[in-house]
Amino acid sequence: LTGLIACMIDIAVEKLAGYKYLAVKQNIEKYTELGGLSISLILWAVLNSAFVMLGSLAVAFLEPIAAGSGIPQIKCFLNGVKIPRVVRLKTLVIKVFGVICSVAGGLAVGKEGPMIHSGAVVAAGVSQGRSTSLKKDFKIFEYFRRDTEKRDFVSAGAAAGVSAAFGAPVGGVLFSLEEGASFWNQLLTWRIFFASMVSTFTLNFFLSIYHGKPGQLSSPGLINFGRFDSDSVQYNLYEIPLFIIMGALGGVLGALFNIINYWLTIFRIRYIHRPCLQVMEAMLVAAVTATVSFAMIYFSNDCQPLGQDNTEEYPLQLFCADGEYNSMATAFFNTPERSVRSLFHNPPGTYNPVTLGVFTLAYFALAVWTYGLTVSAGVFIPSLLIGAAWGRLFGILLSFIASSQSIWADPGKYALIGAAAQLGGIVRMTLSLTVILVEATGNVTYGFPIMLVLMTAKIVGDYFIEGRSRIPGLQSVPFLHWDAPPTSHWLTAREVMSSPVTCFNRVEKVGRIVDVLSNTSTNHNGFPVVSDTTENDEPGKICGLILRSQLIVLLKHKVFVERASSRLSQRRLQLKDFRDAYPRFPPIQSIHVSQDERECMMDLTEFMNPTPYTVPQETSLPRVFKLFRALGLRHLVVVDNENRVVGLVTRKDLARYHVGKDGLEELHLAQT
Amino acid sequence: LTGLIACMIDIAVEKLAGYKYLAVKQNIEKYTELGGLSISLILWAVLNSAFVMLGSLAVAFLEPIAAGSGIPQIKCFLNGVKIPRVVRLKTLVIKVFGVICSVAGGLAVGKEGPMIHSGAVVAAGVSQGRSTSLKKDFKIFEYFRRDTEKRDFVSAGAAAGVSAAFGAPVGGVLFSLEEGASFWNQLLTWRIFFASMVSTFTLNFFLSIYHGKPGQLSSPGLINFGRFDSDSVQYNLYEIPLFIIMGALGGVLGALFNIINYWLTIFRIRYIHRPCLQVMEAMLVAAVTATVSFAMIYFSNDCQPLGQDNTEEYPLQLFCADGEYNSMATAFFNTPERSVRSLFHNPPGTYNPVTLGVFTLAYFALAVWTYGLTVSAGVFIPSLLIGAAWGRLFGILLSFIASSQSIWADPGKYALIGAAAQLGGIVRMTLSLTVILVEATGNVTYGFPIMLVLMTAKIVGDYFIEGRSRIPGLQSVPFLHWDAPPTSHWLTAREVMSSPVTCFNRVEKVGRIVDVLSNTSTNHNGFPVVSDTTENDEPGKICGLILRSQLIVLLKHKVFVERASSRLSQRRLQLKDFRDAYPRFPPIQSIHVSQDERECMMDLTEFMNPTPYTVPQETSLPRVFKLFRALGLRHLVVVDNENRVVGLVTRKDLARYHVGKDGLEELHLAQT
Prior knowledge:
Chains A, B: GO terms for molecular function: chloride channel activity; chloride:proton antiporter activity. The structure is a homodimer. By secondary structure, the first copy, chain A, is mainly α. Chain A has 26 helices and twelve strands. In chain A, the strands form five sheets. The first copy, chain A, has a three-stranded mixed sheet. Chain A has a three-stranded mixed sheet with strand order 10-11-12. In chain A, strands 1-2 form a two-stranded antiparallel ribbon. In chain A, a hairpin with a 4-residue loop joins β1 and β2. In chain A, α6 packs antiparallel against α7. The longest helix of chain A is centred in the first third of the chain and has 33 residues. The radius of gyration of chain A is 28 Å and the shape is elongated. Chains A and B meet through α7, α8, α16, α17 and β10 of A and α7, α8, α16, α17 and β10 of B.
């Protein structure tokens, strides 16, 4: 399904953008001789704005969570943070519609990030065997209606999304592992890999039919970087320092991108928080994008001969001589994916250095402004495009400086390295990004330089972005990082835990359970069950753990001790009842409990987890952290050496110690 | 260093094998006309046997653990099982020498498996900053002198080995993760990846110098499958069922290989256990290999024209007409790596089907016999070669059957698929093997078929090999698998644990500690420390865990309570003292404790782990298993609900429940 969605997006964008370019091109050609090109400009701007308006309206008014690439949200989901509505069917529909509109509308965005989100939604939906939005239950896959199982499926879906977007199944697996999985499970990984492979295969198969060559399964991925041929694929030892310099440059530019964007985000949170303002901003950006493009095409005098084997789809003559085309127009009259490919593969001499320089600056500004708009869009492709442009420029300049022309003959190589550097500087991924880029270029030879470049970009970028203050107005997300913070080694569970804890007895009064669950100030999700009712307010001995959701199901089915005898003939509460209620457990307010029933008792013994993980009070924070991370815990009971409950550690308690480190994550979340 | 070792092995094998082939070739050419080719045969057999004898002598008499590929040993090491001498410097030296001899000796073996072992030894050695074999301590990296840190390094080393062997850095990372890591750590993975990349790069760089094209870094890996060109790389939907059939065939043949080898292993354990017998068997195999090759060349009448662009290094005319060469001779007068490459890439029509069929049968028999000899050698390349041969045959037969010649034009594709199927059927790896093969061919297009084929081969192979009885005479290895066995869900920690446990008091008599440690019948490595001395033999409350190695260091330094006051001026025992003793802690017998000292007391409070992981008795086995796997535990204390120690779960306790599932692992270990 992910592959099919990718295929659909690809074809829709191709068609819509094709019609648009054709219309604008004919219009320009018509008015080039007549004079009055401003009419063409207006046509272009209006077309762009119209597309973007549609997409932005859907996102802003129908499903704001569908804005942006969705990658930060999926990261949080895989990390164990619950974000409402992120894997709903409605989100998927709006996302797909939105991304088609924003790419067709000519914004400086890509369609790859949203694919990852789409894959995740598909996986979360299919694995449950029902859709709560559509109110349809297929009565299958009931086993998977649990948080952990669903998370596994979402990792596979995200991997399939990466795989479809970049034709990078292995990169997809690594992306999922890098972002989500904490416990490496061989079988799960293998399944994720299988999902990724099937996704690439499906996309490939249907695109091959679309392109009229059915069954030729050799062009993977939405973005096709084109194959670097084996003869030209080589680099030399002395080029490595150059690559590292480019990596550092990418880190600096990436940090600049993030910093400007950070201020923009704060501005947006303060002043542009109403949906109609957001739509208007998106339309404005679309119009400005068209204007800037037009101006650059208009003032550019970079004419290139129209070769026999020319692959440009919309060559625009404009003021060039006959048999030539305007090369700036090519850069803009293309989906960004195609432009990246041209920058990688066009033979030396295709681009004028000045054109490239101006293009880099303009596109950088547009991309910064665009990122964070209320539209569905990714930042991968614009980053790659900016990087490819200045990378190619770098390569051309090198060949000017060097005496021997032949060594630096291939500016396409530098375009690739520049693209990697810029992308790395902006998103700061390393492992999975290396593999994704290697797979997307279909070539392992550049693996080592790409890795060096991404590492340099990350180090340099982190230097600038660190120590940034928190974004005002954004609630903190309990995001757990890989390692406990280095300052935490002297802290113990005692300092970290929440205390006192609300506990229940094995056999508890219904009234008290309802009161505790209704108490909005605490809002806990896990409650230790203790064995002895202690008179003097001393904590009791731990004997289990029960979840809010379980209690709610119990209350709903009125599983009270007093009724047990009278309802012997009725069926017992089964695992199925818990699964059916997943994932939208009713709020406690919706469950009616009469005054009589409040006096009944509930026996929790049968339903609680009888052996929850516990730690003594003296356990160090890194050890607690490791338990949470390795076992995917949400609650950890802290006991004294008599096994009495003294506290409870939750994700929030742990995440508090990561203040200031999750800046980038927060920035990306704030933009949605 | 791993890259350098790989480079050295490659060059040494190339040179030695080159001299050998040249000598034999000249001799054959000389006697072809004279008659008396038996002299050539004898020369060949003697040369082979001499090489193999050298390698086998070194392995059998100096370091038997260096036999085989070393992969099962590294797997066990990464799993947490201690195997003596597996990461010593001496093992490395013997291994490298042994593998050069066995490959140069013309055995049906590869040099790739041993590279993985070599990488692991290098990593284990370098990370410790000293060599106990050479009695040299560089006083660096003392932080890494711990089991967990060393294991991390060994995973990186193994990955670097895979990377150097196959030019597959990502495959290397996945190999390490698949075999070793249980807790996925992003930073560690990134470091492993870095090690892999550097290893490929180094190998590449030095080989490029050796080949006279310094700095051209485009041929990765020891084995170079050659690049599949983009034009010819494609497959069609209707070929997928064929691929799956080939996968099943590979599974059957792989199972056959393993079953025959299993009987051979039992035979060897029973009758060929003396080193000199082992050396003689190895020499016999070498001579037979030469004879079989010679016979096949002699009786083959498959002559191929000697083209202009012919790349065969040792074309042998023998009885062919002028301007032609004997194609069977080509298959044998080559290192197996080159033969695989020829099978993948030679144009259609290069091989005669009968030649291929006979070759497959002969090589299969030789490889089965060879695998498990007392020589350093891997099974990857022979498997690939067998598979490539029958795969190509399959492709040729297809093109006979099909009416339209052009579709099936490329038998090289089928050779690749056959190679994957055969290798998958023998070694039963899936995820990492897919990635390794994809990287080694430098092409992602065949990723999906390769994955399908490996999966089919594994499923079919597992069908035959399952239920195999255990190997007699092999002690069981406490190897922990990924998941708890499915039958274990009704077992709890109470049934699994060892009980009663030997516990120590916080302040314990030295005499008792010495007695417990000297008691060879128990031989425990971890001891719970309990708080109260209980009079009536009741278990005490848990308050810590101390290891045998720690107790030995304490005894060695005589850290007794009675001496504390008198030795105030002396320095306290520090972490460094524990690290310096790692990894070869002296046995308890070597520590002299006088009768007086036996009466002293030792305070363990300061040195024990104060918050060991504990579980209640009722914890289910899968939950215990998950804790062991996720946290890399070796001991887990089982307590009752008063926190009193009632038992201890060790790896051995858990591994008992996997009886019968680790057959393949055991087989491979038995062969060393």
